[in-house]
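Give me the 3D structure for DeoR family transcriptional regulator.
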Amino acid sequence: MKPAERRRAILDLLETHGEKSVEELARIFGVSQVTIRNDLADLEARGLVQRTYGGAVPVRKVLFNPSFEEKKRHRLEAKRAIALRALEEVREGDALILDAGSTTLILASLLKGRFRKLFVLTNSIPVALELQGSGLEVLVLGGQMRHHSLALIGPATVRELSWYRADKAFLGATGVDSKGFSTPNPLEAETKRAMVEAAGKAYILADSTKLNRPTLARFASLEEAVLVTDAEADPQVLWALEAAGARVWVADLPLTGAKKNRSVPAPRAGEGGKGHEEGD
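Predicted structure for DeoR family transcriptional regulator (280 residues):
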């Protein structure tokens, strides 16, 4: 991995987890602690991270704005709640597809130490690095790399996905509305579509800011996957999605007092999508 790519991956990990030590980063990326310190010095010089004793935390340009910081912490908490809900669906021995994204990266971190035998296919370099040393079998799909996310997408990825059959796929989405799940990038949409088709059950991990927000390229209908979102979702939006055919699982945010993993409302007969029979 080139230094620029590694630094982007480091920033992605810090954005997701909030803080990592130099020792952890050196282990994850398979480089020396001196190399990681140089990477962090470069990122700090560009105003992207703040170094701490033995590690680093991410910094935003609007760090001085308390409301922004509160929102950032809350979104990470929401994504972790969603990932924890998704984790309940994983079984020992499963073959999984993990899409690129911040919530699926958190899910990957939760798999470590909880399972001894999983086969994980992923198009995400950060997810693959997160699972390094976990003892789980990991296959990284090939394809065209998106530099901002280190995701591998496109025809090569789609072709490779057609060779496999997974038990479950966990994907992200930029937009969710009555027409289905979407993303701004058509190549990414094709890749996500192939993931849905390659799995027995599909789950879309999308926090409440993604709801009622369509984007350019749709990759799945509401009926084809379970939507896992957080407890700050607008009930009216959730009801509208249910009425359009979605199956919605709402993961509790620890500080909201919301009922854990509630579903709103109960699905009508015949409207369940992939994976709907589990987790109620």
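Residues 60-74, 256-263, 265-280 have pLDDT under 50 and may be disordered. Let me know if you want a second pass.
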